[in-house]
Amino acid sequence: MAYYRSNSGAIALIKILFTMNKLYKTTQSMFLAWVILLAFGTSAHAQEPQWKLSLEKGVEWTKYTPNKILLVGSSDWGLHGVDANTGKLLWSNEDLYNSAKSLKGPDGKKLGYTADLIQVLEDPNHAKISDFALVKYTDNVMVKNFVVINIRTGEVVINPKMAGMPVVKVIGPEVATFNYDGSGYIQELKGILLTASFVDMYQAGKPYTQITKFIDLESGKVAWESDQFSSIFLPIVTSDNHLLFIGEKTSAKIDAKTGKPFWTFEVADKKNNFEAFDANIRLTEGYFYQKKGNQGVVSAVELGSGKVLWEKPLSTKDAPMLKAENFGVIVSDEKNFTLMEAESGNTKWTAKKLSGIVVDLGRDRGIAVGEKGKYLTVLDKNSGAEKWSQKIKGIQIDQMTGAGIMYQDEEGSIGLIDFDGNLKWGNKDMIKGPGVLRAKSALDSEVFYADGKVFHVNLVTGEKKEIIGKVDFNEKETPDNLEYTGANFILSSSQNMLGFDESGRVQFQQHWASPKISLAGRIALRTMQVAMVAMAAANAYAEGASTGMMGYQSMASRQYGIQREFFEDMSGAFGQAANQRFKASKSRGVYNFILTDVGEGVGLVKVDKVSGKEVGKIVLNDKEPVYDSDPENGMIFYKPSKKEVFGYTF
User: Fold this and answer.
1) Cα-based torsion angle of the residue sequence 499, 504, 505, 507 in order, rounded to the nearest 10 degrees
2) Phi/psi of residue 538, each to 5°?
3) How many helices (H) and strands (E) would you count in the chain?
4) Higher pLDDT residue, 562 or 60?
5) Distance between CA atoms of 197 and 200, rounded to whole angstroms?
6) Band of pLDDT at residue 518, cut at 50, 70 and 90
7) What torsion, rounded to 10 degrees, do the Cα atoms 426, 428, 430, 434 define?
8) pLDDT per residue as tens digits for the range 587-609
9) Which of 51, 129, 357, 390 could make a disulfide contact with 647, Cβ separation 3.0–4.6 Å?
10) DSSP-assigned states of every residue in 623-637
11) 24 has a pLDDT exceeding 60
């Protein structure tokens, strides 16, 4: 987490990390972080901290980790590990972020510390995994780094150079070669994958070279390696716990224990690459597009055996988008929108030119296509004929429900279209945006706050019910956070909290007055927690619309299909997996921390979210108290000066 200061009172929020590695065996790794900006004056005496840490260089960034290590980034781009209970400095490493000094943002300005620079690993079934973290960053041009560290000792466990990946020098320092998006931690296998593909300019004939190494996380030792395949994005873990690699020239299913291929599928012409790929939701068939001779070809491959099921020519100038479904593959290029049958590859139909995210609605409901932020069009999957279309400005598919397609319009309002194209709730009946807040307690229901009201939506039936008619917060504050704690819902602003259950029964409503300072100094201080199981909520469209290399839509982007199957069959393996994901996450984020007058001066109160009761308070004598916290027990890591961090327990 980065520390920020501002006299304008802006709140810096760091998003919860979310990882989804498999469809049917899903594990969430989540943690919460807080970045607070405050400005006030007080003459009270600060309470003595439990511990104090001083660094010679300035403290720029902190991150609390599940194993009670506080990571501290210093102004010289060093990284330090601190025992969060005692404040003891465990280790320092000044080399991990050296190349990050050169990172620049879209505006060309240098970047400071961000939450993305380091990912602490988590596994609810293996606590020791959180002893490790990935340092990974790139500017997508010259700078890239990949390091695994033990955050208890500061030891570098592995990096591409240590693993023996080829080292090259073009401009600047020597860099070990690795595919940035294809290298990372594979949670199901408890290992690190390093993979590379490149033209070896130093060898006679300049051959295309592939290298892949699988490294045991705890030991840092290479378990297996191969020069037969590579991957341009992190390999997919299959249902039998092996690995599906999709490379530029070679795709393969690999034995995860030995690294031996079960099968490989190569490009027909080595001078060309696979330019597009997608797989159906059950990972039974994959579809590849490549240039072969002077024409394009789409090939269907059985992913269990590697058998080529069919191959069909495709006349197109540019690489098409492929969207695989169980009944076939949709091919969208600059001219046509075509369905190839799953069994034969024969063209079943060609529709008018469409563009946008493609969603199978299941059963005989059709195929939905979001077009250019103006239309939502549904085609008959058997004929390609238009079944219905809705014109709505700025329309984006939000998520699939059992009753239809939830969407957002240009104002951020939420509506629902049923599977026949009728507005189940739209226009005046929409959940009005902007500023809609939402939280899920389960995959079949969601709670929304909008325009001063709270709604409950049954995602199976589409029923929308107003459960709280008017929310009034003191100091004329507007709620800016809604979360599900595992026991209740909390609607909050900087100085107000409202707790209620799924029926809308208010359990408590509390207000803590802002310190008696100028309006400019009333800066929010509180915990931000995102709904724990919002698998495909507000950002589902963005995930779905974004495509990776070769046009492949990542597994996270396939939430529509997952949701559709969930609502078609509320029981079964996926429903069980979804429940496990939720139960593994609900223990986090127990407290809110609120700036107010605590009697002895201006400070913080610690509030239990479930009961709404104060369970602690602390006085901080600082014009700009900046800190983050341990989301499990509420310990405060406070920065009283540029070079210090204090630890408080209260």
Assistant:
1) 0
2) -60, -30
3) 3, 49
4) 60
5) 9
6) very low
7) 130
8) 336 788 887 887 777 778 888 88
9) 51
10) SS-EEEE-TTT--EE
11) no
Task: Render 393-431 in DSSP notation, one character per residue.
Answer: TT-EEEEEETTEEEEE-TT--EEEE-TTS-EEE-GGGSB
- Read off the pLDDT band of 546 (50, 70, 90): very low
Nearest to 194 by CA among 173, 152, 166, 156: 166
Q: What phi, psi does 620 have (nearest 5°)? A: -125, 120
The position carrying tokens 């396939």 is 558
More confident of the two residues 530 and 70: 70
Architecture of domain 267-353: Beta Barrel (2.40)
Q: Which helix (H) or strand (E) holds 481?
A: strand 481-484
The model's confidence at residue 171, banded by pLDDT at 50, 70 and 90, is low
pLDDT(497) > 80: yes
C-alpha–C-alpha distance, residues 622 and 643, integer Å: 15
- Are the C-beta atoms of residues 381 and 366 closer than 8 Å to each other? yes
Contacts of 524 (CB under 8 A, 6+ apart): 9, 11, 36, 480, 493, 494, 495, 595
Using CA atoms in the order 85, 91, 94, 98, what is the torsion angle rounded to 10 degrees?
-60
The model's pLDDT over 418-430, given as tens digits with 9 standing for 90+, comes to: 999 999 998 889 9
Q: Say if residues 327 and 367 touch (Cβ distance below 8 Å).
A: no
d(CA 195, CA 212) in angstroms, rounded, equals: 4
Q: Please state at what angle helix 559-568 crosses helix 573-583, rounded to 10 degrees.
A: 110
Residue reference for tokens 């929310």:
471
Instruction: Write the pLDDT tens digit of every residue in 322-331.
Output: 999 888 999 9
Question: Is residue 157 pLDDT above 90, yes or no?
Answer: yes
pLDDT of the residue at 339: 94
The closest alpha carbon to 161, from 171, 149, 150, 147, belongs to 147
Cα four-point dihedral sign 108, 112, 113, 117: positive
Q: Looking up tokens 């201080």, which residue turns up? A: 525
Cα gap 560→367, rounded to integer Å = 12
DSSP 342: T
User: What is the three-class DSSP state of 169?
Assistant: coil
CB 178 within 8 A of CB 194: yes
In the block, residue with structure tokens 């194209």 = 421
